[in-house]
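Long-time lurker, finally posting.

We've been working with 2'-5' RNA ligase family protein (Streptomyces albidocamelliae) and I want a structural starting point before designing mutants. I don't trust myself to interpret raw outputs, so I'm hoping someone here can both generate the structure tokens and explain anything notable. Sequence follows.
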Amino acid sequence: MHTVELLADTSTEERVRHIWQRLADAGLPSLSAHPHPTNRPHVTLATSPELPWGVRRELCAALTALPLPLSLRGVIRFSGRVKVLAWRVVPDAALAALQRQVWEVLAGYGTGEGNPLHEPGNWVPHISLARARSGAVPWPDELLPAELSQQWDGTFEGARSYDSTARTVQHLT
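Top reply, 14 upvotes:
Generated this for you. Predicted structure of 2'-5' RNA ligase family protein:
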């Protein structure tokens, strides 16, 4: 599977990594423990089974909309087989339009069914902070870093694609 992801400015990335470490220091699940060198804070716009060169060219054209404002506000939790703690991204009109455009580029090339969670209208933009596979929700509010209750504003400055099979990234901007 290939992703299309937005990357934040250096200050925002450092802030997220700080929170990853704060969660780990509190004994909570955290993405700070994910050792792969491609592990970095991002927002996934869409996924596709493949990204042919024509798709990449159109994605790069769409991504010329960057930089875009980034606003993080509040935590969200996703449940299911894998539980996720995330920092909610508040999408403005430009971010929502870019996500829709990326979705439509991928759909237009018939690269396969996209993840319905990324379909415009269903998409919940977020930066993942932690994942857990079993048990009760492991992130009680009282143990979460105080920074997560504060708004953080930054900028989306770049984009990449992550290939989950090869475990490699390709920059799209």
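Before you design anything, note these points.
The radius of gyration is 16 Å.
The chain has three helices and seven strands.
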